[in-house]
Amino acid sequence: MAGSLQVRNLDDDLIARLKRRAARHGRSAEAEHREILRQALADEAEPDFESLAAELRRLTRGRIQTPSEELVREGREER
């Protein structure tokens, strides 16, 4: 699925540098922008489920958690 991304408030100097770099590579500024993003994110590993779950546990440590069966029961009783 192709998406769209708009980047606002770029310095004029940065835009000029992007256009010069694109010209050196024979691409449009938009194509160069895509390539820069692709390269920047290529080596970034997606976190696995276990890492995400550990992070969620760390973020919610110490909070009172309501068991899901209680929430389901409350929802049924409200109907």
From TrEMBL:
Residues 4-41 form the Antitoxin FitA-like ribbon-helix-helix domain. It comes from the Bacteria. Transmembrane segments: none annotated. One of its GO terms (biological process) is regulation of DNA-templated transcription. This is Antitoxin FitA-like ribbon-helix-helix domain-containing protein. The lineage of its organism: Bacteria, Pseudomonadati, Pseudomonadota, Alphaproteobacteria, Hyphomicrobiales.
